[in-house]
Design brief:
The complex is a heterodimer of chains A (224) and B (577). Chain A contains 8 helices and no strands. Chain A is mainly α and 224 residues long. In chain B, helix 4 runs parallel beside helix 13, helix 4 packs across helix 19 and helix 13 packs antiparallel against helix 16. The longest helix of chain B has 47 residues. The chains are: A mainly alpha (224), B mainly alpha (577). Chains A and B meet through helix 1, helix 6 and helix 7 of A and helix 3, helix 12, helix 17, helix 19 and helix 20 of B.
Chain lengths: 224, 577
């Protein structure tokens, strides 16, 4: 009888990892897009922004699918509400990258701002934060294997802690960058000043959301 | 050949009876075929899915263990299917009532005694004389009341036994057909429910609803209610066992600083217990006849009635367990230990976790302590925090994948063992669904009356076991293949826990105690076990719709089995009566 086989729902962890893979593609495109923007290659920026749009849409679909298939109850490895929070925060990372793409297509960069090196470092640390949280998502099936407890849960906590550390560093850098931006206030046009504040916000959101995702995942662990 | 010719099952039978006998054997085999075709996949499917066994080996192992379970332990439960739902002798009693115009049907004991007297069965009469002379007296007075007793009684008695045989044949056909329909549409029905439903249906039309043993005799819970209750209790029991077992595996293996080492250490212990239970069950129940045989007595060993005998069997089972445990230990020793750095990594995580606990407790102390103690606690807490940070920095998250893969590999061996265990238990429990009605039918045809003390004939068990294997070979492998692909969620650790829990529950239900001995549903027991693992956060997602479908199938299967059986019974009566 096929009763036993029918007993299993689709495990939500694989779709969440698939969703993460799409989000990661958005993030790597965004990275390339920022490079192109700083090189004043507006055609590439437009192309990449359109690509991010497309990937973000597939991620959205996947997110909706996962939400539909989520079930509740005591028999689930992870509580439905908590999984939903995870997928929502994860999806918002792709949204932020889409926003960034939209911003960068508004106008060409023109003269590279004086704080470009610091900006590149800032982008990098946010990317690192994201990479760290991506590793946690990749570990999810391992976590299930260990029943969300024990050494595996401990390693996950450690990974999440690193995400937090990186995010804290990114915050400090963002503050410095904003200071510099205001210091060069007079050298910039109103438009580019406004745009740069917006861009900084979106990039810092990448780290913020990654950190938030980490906190959500901490919620499903069984730590004693 | 000569042996076969000497055995003439048709001796002294009318043509109708001979045809019915053939039908009984054919439909009994059909039912057993159905069991093999559909149910057996549950036992081995998980092992095929996780890659622990190839399909070929799964079928070979399933065949061996199903057959030995059916043949060695299978007869316990058959009795319940045969006699637990209604008293088969009453079918004859009702005919006797009709023939003699009695106000109510005579008691089963009286019918048995009358039959013994009329057959001039000297052995039974002597036994009755010794045990219940008043019954014998009652029977003799009864006979004296009617001058042409023999002329009236014999046809009635034969009619009754024929009815019983037809009812049982109808039950086998009804259950088998219903199973095939259900498995065609993919409904989660159980072989046990089908046959119990069918037998209940026959009981209702042959004897009336009142004669069916719904709740057992006063003071003793039994009958249909006991069987139905077991369908609720067995998944619950299996679920609880599976939950505890998986928590035990989690605590004892998966969450240990060195999971591979812990798994290796635990394996021989588990093997020991499993083999001991298996050997003990086989020895006490399956080899019962062997202990009483002349061959064994001639060996001059301790007799089966000796008070020391159970102890001896227990000891032998333990020795066998130790031998198998040693083999298991040798097998798992071949698996490499985890490389040192990975182990260090796991230990570091363990240290970090312990420090985390210390941190928590220290924080509690610091929060409630005052004065000097409070100050000291302050500084210790700061130290603990530093230490915890240090320990956490040493944990490297990337190295854990290979560890779990190794643990799973060890559990693959255990899962194969537990799958064999399930196959054995399944054979023991489910063969009754085919053999119980079959042996009742065959016996009443051959004896011309349903004898009170009757045993399940060994050849019937043989037939049932063979039927299961044929079902497995012709159709079951395909089901196993599809199931195997779908239940990869049941990784070896999970599969092991679920299967061991289910097998234990099923074996408890086929123990030779009166409170056990119930035909339970193997499939649903396994479902309960899987849910138990799910409750311990072991499975990503569980589709509770299946549980709802199971409940629905209970509601449908019993009336469906009963209805089909009633239809077939009347068709058979039209032809043969």
């Amino acid at each position: 009888m096929r009763t036993i086989a029918k007993l299993f729902g689709r495990s939500p962890f694989v779709p969440i990892q698939q969703h993460m893979e799409r989000v990661a593609r958005c993030v790597s495109k965004a990275q390339a897009m920022i490079d192109a923007y700083l090189a004043n290659d507006q055609a590439t920026v437009e192309k990449l922004a359109a690509e991010i749009d497309e990937i973000e849409e597939t991620a959205d679909h996947l997110k909706r699918d996962i939400e539909h298939q989520l079930r509740g109850g005591v028999f689930m490895a992870v509580d439905r509400g908590r999984l939903r929070q995870i997928i929502i925060v994860q999806d918002s990372i792709a949204d932020k990258m889409q926003n960034l793409g939209k911003l960068l297509t508004l106008r060409a960069c023109g003269d590279v701002p004086p704080f470009v090196e610091e900006f590149k470092a800032f982008v990098q640390i946010n990317l690192d934060t994201f990479d760290a949280i991506r590793q946690v998502i990749d570990e999810l099936d391992n976590l299930l294997e260990a029943g969300f407890a024990g050494g595996e849960a401990q390693t996950t906590v450690e990974l999440i802690r690193r995400v937090g550390e990186l995010e804290a560093q990114a915050d400090v850098m963002q503050h410095d960058l904003l200071k510099q931006l205001f210091a060069h206030e007079s050298d910039l046009t109103v438009g580019s000043f406004f745009l740069w504040t917006k861009v900084l916000k979106q990039v810092s959101d990448l780290g913020d959301r990654s950190n938030r995702l980490g906190n959500r995942i901490r919620g499903i662990l069984q730590l004693k | 050949m000569t042996l076969l010719l000497a055995f003439d099952p048709f001796a002294g039978l009318t043509t109708n009876q001979a045809i019915l006998l053939c039908l009984a054997v054919a439909f009994g085999f059909y039912m057993a075929w159905n069991i093999g075709a559909n149910d057996v996949a549950n036992a081995m499917g998980t092992s095929v899915g996780s890659g622990a066994l190839t399909l070929k080996w799964a079928i070979i192992l399933a065949a061996i263990f199903e057959f030995s379970g059916a043949y060695l332990v299978g007869s316990n439960v058959s009795e319940t299917v045969r006699k637990g739902i209604f008293d088969p002798i009453q079918v004859t009693a009702i005919e006797v009532q009709d023939a003699f115009d009695l106000e109510e049907p005579p008691s089963s004991e009286l019918v048995t005694t009358l039959t013994a007297l009329i057959k001039e069965d000297a052995e039974s009469i002597a036994e009755l004389e010794a045990e219940s002379p008043e019954l014998l007296l009652e029977a003799r007075t009864f006979i004296d009341q009617y001058p042409d007793f023999r002329k009236v009684y014999e046809p009635a008695q034969q009619k009754g036994s024929l009815n019983l045989a037809m009812g049982m044949i109808a039950a086998l056909l009804a259950a088998g057909l219903w199973l095939q329909i259900a498995s065609y549409f993919g409904w989660p029905v159980s072989t046990t429910h089908s046959i119990v439903g069918a037998v209940v249906g026959f009981g209702c039309v042959a004897l009336g609803i009142k004669a069916v043993d719904w709740v057992g005799s006063p003071g003793e819970f039994g009958g249909v209610a006991k069987i139905a209750a077991s369908w609720l209790v067995s998944p619950l029991l299996a679920g609880s066992i599976a939950y505890l077992l998986f928590r035990f595996v989690q605590k004892g293996v998966l969450n240990k600083p060195d999971p591979v080492k812990s798994a290796k250490r635990m394996t021989p212990v588990i093997v020991f217990f499993m083999v001991m239970i298996l050997a003990g069950m086989t020895a006490f129940k399956g080899l019962k006849h062997f202990w009483k045989s002349d061959f064994y007595k001639d060996l001059g060993l301790i007799g089966s009635k000796d008070p020391l005998f159970p102890l001896l069997v227990f000891g032998a089972a333990a020795v066998l367990g130790i031998v198998c445990a040693a083999v298991a230990a040798a097998v798992v020793r071949k698996i490499d230990d985890v490389p040192l750095d990975t182990r260090k990594q796991f230990e570091a995580a363990y240290v970090a976790r312990s420090l985390g606990k210390m941190h928590k407790h220290m924080a509690r102390v610091q929060a409630s302590a005052h004065g000097e103690v409070g100050e000291k606690a302050d500084s210790i807490l700061a130290e603990v925090r530093k230490l915890e940070d240090l320990a956490q920095k040493q944990t490297d998250p990337a190295a854990t994948h290979s560890v779990y893969r190794k643990v799973e590999k060890i559990f693959m061996y255990l899962q194969i063992l537990s799958a064999c265990f399930v196959a054995f238990a399944h054979g023991a429990n489910d063969v009754a669904n085919a053999i119980g009605p079959l042996s009742a039918a065959v016996q009443s045809i051959q004896d011309g009356a349903a004898a009170a003390k009757s045993t399940v004939p060994a050849w019937a068990l043989l037939l049932g076991g063979t039927g299961i294997i044929v079902g497995l070979a012709t159709w079951g492998w395909r089901v196993m293949q599809t199931i195997g692909k779908k239940i990869t969620e049941l990784t070896p650790t999970r599969g092991f826990c679920a299967e061991l829990a289910a097998a234990t529950t099923i074996l408890i239900a086929s123990l030779p105690f009166s409170w056990a001995k119930v035909p339970i549903s193997t499939t649903h027991t396994l479902v309960g076990a899987v849910l138990g693992v799910g409750m311990a956060r072991g499975i990503g997602a569980i589709n509770l719709n299946t549980v709802r479908d199971i409940a629905a199938s209970w509601v449908i299967t019993i009336p469906a089995g009963a209805g089909l059986c009633i239809v077939f019974y009347y068709v058979l009566r039209l032809i043969f009566a």
